């Protein structure tokens, strides 16, 4: 297993307690800010010392509290791309990269630098100091510098969040290329579900210092399984729920009974419905149809958003309102205060554990 | 005119600045990484000479490196030389008094230094020594330089502790500051004025040259500004 980490660390305000395995692919660590993602990377890279645990990188034990092993970062061969890129401000781009290349011997320094410069498109930027580079240029220099150290695995800490959004897609494209070319395991830390969806094959959701099991990104987005995962996947509508039959749940906050497309776990805590899975185009025979009052209609760029309240629900409860994303033409005649029928397909009801 | 005080002052200040430079950086580097309680204690001890009257520092020095002090008597019986009333005694006094200036400026600089640079250097395989001299020090240059200059200036102007451990022996221990005092006491104002002007000139030159150095170093040695993104 290219990266295995079991880490426990008490940080006063919260406890980091994670265990996961990442294969030879891109594994996303997805979680809200402050959930311990960066701390986990720090532990694997050797910058932070866990209280206890076991960390292996490419089969080599780099940290093992039981046997008193704690390799210094220099010997772990983990390339870590910092959010700020951490280029040395006193060195030019070329010096930044060459200072790392020279650690593995001074042979053919110019050629080795040349091939990295070509690969990461930094020709022409060699003599620039980091303060004169744009975010994307800094990232390319930083990635080249990491590759100069010949790492066996790669870890990227929110690599796109420091960039202007209008350039982000270009830089994301370059990043995808680098990650795809990299043969070892890659950990990609992000709080952005879209990035993880596009860049990662596997994903590990982290929540308040804990890690959920690693699964494929597809699995996560189709059936998040837990409330925390579902929040990170961008689902907008939730109701507390309890099992009420073999294929039905009672959505408590909405005060409706919903038929479900999948087996219902006994420990179900919530149901979730994505905004674009709730529909206003009701036919008489539809399952899971319930009457709602329209609270608000908001035209969006390419669709319309209609906030509704199920007739049986109390307006004061946190979860009672439902956000429906609908094609613009369907929302044209709808006004605040109207009564509408909302339908949810059984397979669109996400069953969530606490 | 006897130029000895000028030569002696510069010699003393120069040597003590070299000592202070390394001792201050080591102390700052060490203290900025120690846990809170130890840090507070060490910080107090090293900084104390800055707030104590120089005469009190001189008093303590006499009690330790003087002929009857524990260090002074031990050194005399082992190596056969006195630690007080010689030109190099002033080095001890000025080092103790100017160390806090170097230490505090360097510590402030180290503490505000972005540790991710150290971390990234380590993950890239650089040794801690390499990181310290090639990454930390160059990026802390301004603070280190400022501390060095302050220490030198303080050492050059030190009077209280110096006069207590070296006395005033013309041609042997006299510095500019002790000479000015001595000449004024003798009522030789015209000679005192000469040394006052010399001292002013030295201080002025030091400060101006530092400003020039700082400006030329901090001016970016860069090529044309980078465009936003590779097209």
Structure overview:
The complex is a heterodimer of chains A (354) and B (231). Chain A has helices at residues 37-45, 93-101, 109-119, 135-148, 165-181, 193-199, 217-222, 227-232, 328-331, and strands spanning 3-10, 15-22, 26-30, 52-57, 60-64, 69-70, 78-81, 153-157, 186-190, 202-207, 210-211, 215-216, 237-243, 248-251, 256-259, 268-273, 278-279, 289-299, 304-310, 322-326, 339-344, 350-353. Chain A is an alpha+beta fold and 354 residues long. Chain A has 2 domains: 3-224, P-loop containing nucleotide triphosphate hydrolases (Rossmann fold); 235-353, Beta Barrel (OB fold (Dihydrolipoamide Acetyltransferase, E2P)). In chain A, the strands form 4 sheets. In chain A, strands 3, 7, 8, 9, 10, 11 and 12 form a 7-stranded mixed beta sheet that branches. A 5-stranded antiparallel beta sheet of chain A has the order 2-1-4-5-6, covered by helices on one side. Chain A is elongated, with a radius of gyration of 25 Å. By secondary structure, chain B is mainly alpha-helical. Chain B has a single domain (4-216), classed as MetI-like fold (Orthogonal Bundle). Chain B is built from 11 helices and no strands. In chain B, helix 5 packs antiparallel against helix 9 (160-166). Chain B is globular, with a radius of gyration of 21 Å. The chains are: A alpha+beta (354), B mainly alpha (231). At the A-B interface, strand 7 and helix 4 of A face helix 6 and helix 7 of B.
Put the structure in a nutshell:
Chain A is of the alpha+beta class and 354 residues long. Chain A is built from nine helices and 22 strands.
What is the mean predicted local confidence, pLDDT of chain B? 87
Supply the CATH architecture of the largest domain in chain A: 3-Layer(aba) Sandwich
Question: What overall form of chain A do the CA principal axes indicate?
Answer: elongated
Query: Helical residue percent of chain A?
Result: 10-25%
Please state the overall shape of chain B, judged from the principal axes of the Cα atoms. Answer: globular
Poorly predicted residue ranges of chain B:
219-231
Number of domains of chain A: 2
| Portion in beta strands of chain B | under 5%
CATH class of chain B: Mainly Alpha
Structural class of chain B: mainly alpha
Reported for the largest beta sheet of chain A, the result is: 7 strands, mixed
Task: Calculate the mean pLDDT score of chain A and round it.
Answer: 88
The share of residues in helices of chain B is over 70%
Structural class of chain A: alpha+beta
Radius of gyration of chain A using CA atoms only? 25 Å
Please name the CATH architecture of chain B.
Answer: Orthogonal Bundle
Order of helices and strands of chain B: HHHHHHHHHHH
In CATH's first tier, which class of the largest domain in chain A applies?
Answer: Alpha Beta
> What fraction of residues of chain A sit in β-strands?
25-35%
CATH topology of the largest domain in chain A: Rossmann fold
């Amino acid at each position: 297993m290219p990266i295995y980490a079991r880490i426990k660390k008490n940080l006063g305000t919260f406890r980091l307690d994670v265990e996961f395995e990442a294969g030879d692919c891109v594994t996303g660590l997805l979680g809200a800010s402050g959930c311990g993602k960066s701390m986990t990377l720090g532990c694997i890279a050797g910058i932070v010392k866990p209280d206890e645990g076991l960390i292996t990188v490419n089969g080599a034990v780099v940290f093992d509290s039981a046997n008193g092993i704690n390799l210094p970062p220099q010997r772990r061969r983990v390339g870590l791309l910092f959010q700020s890129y951490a280029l040395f401000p006193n060195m030019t781009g070329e010096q930044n990269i060459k200072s790392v290349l020279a650690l593995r011997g001074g042979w053919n320094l110019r050629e080795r630098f040349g091939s990295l410069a070509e690969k990461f498109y930094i020709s022409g930027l060699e003599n620039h100091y980091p303060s004169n580079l744009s975010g994307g240029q800094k990232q390319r220099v930083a990635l080249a510098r990491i590759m100069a150290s010949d790492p066996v695995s790669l870890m990227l800490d929110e690599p796109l969040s420091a960039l202007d959004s209008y350039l982000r897609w270009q830089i994301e494209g370059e990043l995808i290329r680098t990650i795809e070319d990299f043969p070892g395991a890659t950990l990609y830390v992000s709080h952005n579900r879209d990035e993880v969806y596009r860049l990662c094959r596997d994903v590990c959701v982290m929540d308040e210092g804990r890690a959920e099991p690693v699964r494929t990104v597809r699995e996560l987005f189709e059936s998040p399984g837990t409330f925390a995962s579902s929040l990170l996947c961008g689902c907008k509508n939730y109701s507390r729920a309890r099992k009420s039959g073999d294929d039905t749940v009672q959505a408590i906050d909405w005060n409706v009974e919903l038929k479900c497309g999948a087996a219902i776990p006994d420990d179900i805590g919530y149901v979730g419905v994505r905004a674009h899975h709730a529909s206003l185009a009701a036919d008489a025979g539809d399952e899971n149809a319930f009457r709602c009052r329209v609270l608000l209609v908001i035209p969006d760029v390419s669709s319309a958003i209609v906030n509704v309240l199920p007739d049986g629900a109390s307006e004061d409860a946190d979860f009672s309102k439902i956000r429906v994303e609908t094609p613009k033409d369907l929302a044209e005649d709808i006004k605040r205060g109207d009564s509408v029928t909302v339908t949810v397909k059984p397979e669109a009801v996400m069953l969530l554990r606490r | 005119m006897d130029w000895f005080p000028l030569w002696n002052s510069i010699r003393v200040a120069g040597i003590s600045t070299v000592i202070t430079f390394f001792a201050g950086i080591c102390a700052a580097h060490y203290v900025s990484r120690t846990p809170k309680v130890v840090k507070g204690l060490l910080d107090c001890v090293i900084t104390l000479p800055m707030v104590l009257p120089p005469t009190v520092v001189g008093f303590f020095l006499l009690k330790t490196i003087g002929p009857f002090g524990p260090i002074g008597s031990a050194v005399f019986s082992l190596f056969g030389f006195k630690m007080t009333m010689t030109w190099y005694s002033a080095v001890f006094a000025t080092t103790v008094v100017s160390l806090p200036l170097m230490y505090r400026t360097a510590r402030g600089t180290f503490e505000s230094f972005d540790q991710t640079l150290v971390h990234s250097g380590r993950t890239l395989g650089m040794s801690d020594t390499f990181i310290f001299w090639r990454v930390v020090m160059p990026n802390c240059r301004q603070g280190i330089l400022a501390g060095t200059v302050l220490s030198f200036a303080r050492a050059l102007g030190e009077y209280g502790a110096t006069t207590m451990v070296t006395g005033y022996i013309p041609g042997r221990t006299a510095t500019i500051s002790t000479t000015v005092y001595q000449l004024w006491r003798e009522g030789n104002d015209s000679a005192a004025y000469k040394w006052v002007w010399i001292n002013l000139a030295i201080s002025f030159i030091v400060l101006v040259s530092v400003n020039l150095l700082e400006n030329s170093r901090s001016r970016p040695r860069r090529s044309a500004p980078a465009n936003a993104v590779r097209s």
